[in-house]
Specification:
CATH topology of chain B: Alpha-Beta Plaits
Number of helices of chain B: 2
Distance between the termini of chain B: 10 Å
Number of domains of chain A: 1
Number of helices of chain A: 18
Strand content of chain A: 5-15%
CATH topology of chain A: Cytochrome p450
Bound molecules: iron/sulfur cluster
CATH class of chain A: Mainly Alpha
Radius of gyration of chain A: 21 Å
CATH architecture of chain A: Orthogonal Bundle
Strand content of chain B: 15-25%
Radius of gyration of chain B: 11 Å
Strand order of the largest sheet of chain A: 1-2-10-7-3
Number of strands of chain B: 3
Largest sheet of chain B: 3 strands, antiparallel
Structural class of chain B: alpha+beta
Oligomer: heterodimer
Number of strands of chain A: 14
Order of helices and strands of chain B: EHEHE
Number of domains of chain B: 1
CATH superfamily of chain A: Cytochrome P450
Shape of chain A: globular
Chain lengths: 415, 66
């Protein structure tokens, strides 16, 4: 997709030539043509930590070392893009009876509060809990892949990658499947507007989401079932009971964090498989290599770019950062850093160091990583088992989007 | 051989347990349940792989054979 470059803002005094690099993470043409090739090129042409004047001006952490250290240092690098004290103040000024404005906790909150909000989810998304869902995730994947297979040619993104995580989400939450269309429309709206940081529009979408979920949420309080909403009602946040506002926050965070990420991850993987027939053959002949392949695809095509704010003026890895400046943890860069992974451009699921940070590092590490891994593995397994050799439909070129979640818009396959 | 784990910094990736659930037991929330493991003879290789798998790099193998 081609995008217009955002205007360059003036360069502050402390930004020296050595740390300046012009890169628009939403619209750089080479990046949108082939994101990961552009990143490999950046490792040669751009500083490991740089400031770009695009999109309001912000830092990009490209090296593995910078991403790893910053992700784990929550005191210097805050996740409270809008400070919680400010949010609380804003909320206290709302007239009585105004709707609760949901916010994606625990993503945008620092420890120690972060820990209290995350704990109930941690159990629900533990490897043990997720393993119990594996069978039903496989059923969903099989039915989507079989439906796609019958067509002979299809857009993998629209037919499999997008519907799967939405259906898994509805199932885990115990939400009625009839509402699928409403959720998918909302996901689409959310994804199309991701570049737009207009707070009012974000709040409107979040309110729409909680409105569709509210009756189910309230019903589960009175009539618990075997689903996530019922379970969350029964846990505590720190030393207090869960309220309807907390429940709405949880729904919002899982909705915004767990859908487009998986969509893009699976699509990048399917794209790699479609362009590598030998790898398809190898994995079909020995599916026990699929988990390792899943990890290497996550490393080779890491796709999320989390945001942090510098808490106080600091020197970090030789660079001066000022309080309030925004940092993009460019994880796709970290996982293609030759200092960490020799020949980073080579896909090799038997490489010596295969430990990537596609799911981040530190206390904010992706909570849904176990679920995402199961979804990715199951889709690759069923895709390889059910489709004959597949390749890209060259009549419909692949285009990519940048931003906070990088991936292809469509992946048309032939088989 | 012994393994030491900086338990307080575990973020629950469970990559260690994906290598060996018995060497690296997890609690119900998916965090590592122990801070020290005596590696039974014959499992040294597995222990090293598990330690390497940790994205937080908080698992250290103490090799007493050297
Ligand atoms: S791999 Fe590391 S961070 Fe993950 S559960 Fe094991 S010890 Fe904890």
């Amino acid at each position: 997709m081609s995008e217009t470059l955002s205007p360059a803002v003036a360069r502050p005094d402390h930004i020296t030539d050595a740390v300046f690099y012009d890169f628009d993470m939403f619209a750089d043409p080479a990046y949108l043509a082939n994101p990961h090739a552009r990143i490999l090129d950046m490792h040669k042409s751009a500083p490991p930590i740089f400031w770009t004047p695009r999109n309001g001006g912000h830092w990009m952490f490209v090296s593995h070392a910078a991403n790893f250290e910053a992700s784990r240092d929550v005191e210097k690098f805050s996740s409270e893009i809008v400070p919680q004290s400010k949010i609380k103040e804003m909320m206290s000024k709302l007239p009585p009876g105004a709707p609760h404005i949901p916010q994606p906790l625990p993503i945008n909150i620092d420890p120690p509060e972060h820990t209290a909000y995350r704990a109930p989810l941690q159990r629900a998304f533990s490897p043990k809990a997720i393993n119990e869902l594996k069978g039903s995730i496989r059923e969903l994947a099989i039915s989507l892949i079989e439906e796609m297979k019958a067509k002979g040619t299809a857009d993998f993104v629209a037919d499999v990658a997008e519907p799967l995580p939405v259906q898994v989400f509805l199932k885990m939450f115990g939400l009625p499947l009839e509402r699928q269309a409403a959720y998918r429309a909302l996901v689409k709206e959310h994804m199309e507007n991701i570049r737009n940081h207009d707070t009012a529009a974000i709040v409107r979408r979040m309110l729409k989401l909680t409105a569709i979920m509210k009756d189910t949420i309230l019903d589960r309080k009175a009539n618990p079932k075997d689903d996530l909403i019922s379970m969350l009602w029964q846990t505590r946040i720190g030393d207090r009971e869960t309220t309807i506002n907390d429940m709405e926050n949880y729904c919002v965070v899982l909705f915004t964090a767990g859908l487009d990420t998986v969509v893009n991850g699976i699509s990048l993987g399917a794209h790699h498989l479609a362009t590598n027939p030998e790898l398809q053959q190898q994995l079909r002949a020995d599916p026990s290599q699929i988990p390792a392949a899943t990890e290497e695809m996550l490393r080779r095509y890491t796709f999320t770019v989390p945001l942090r704010v510098v808490s106080k003026d600091i020197e970090f890895q030789g660079v001066n950062l000022k309080a309030g400046e925004r940092i993009m943890l460019f994880l796709p860069g970290a996982d293609l850093d030759a200092k960490e992974y020799p020949n980073p451009e080579v896909y090799n699921h038997k490489r010596e160091n295969s430990v990537h940070i596609a799911f981040g590092a530190g206390p904010h590490r992706c909570l849904g990583s176990h679920l995402a891994r199961v979804e990715l593995q199951v889709v690759y397994e069923e895709l390889l088992a059910r489709l004959p050799q597949f390749s890209l439909d060259t009549s419909k070129p692949v285009s990519f989007h940048g931003g906070h979640v990088v991936g292809p818009d469509h992946v048309w396959l032939n088989w | 051989m012994k393994i030491r784990i900086d338990k307080a910094r575990c973020v629950g990736n469970a990559r260690c347990a994906a290598i060996s659930e018995t060497l690296f037991p997890l609690d119900d929330e998916g965090y590592i349940a122990v801070s020290e493991v005596d590696v039974p003879p014959g499992q040294e290789q597995l222990a090293r792989r598990g330690a390497r798998a940790c994205p937080e790099r908080i698992i250290v193998v103490e090799d007493d054979s050297q």
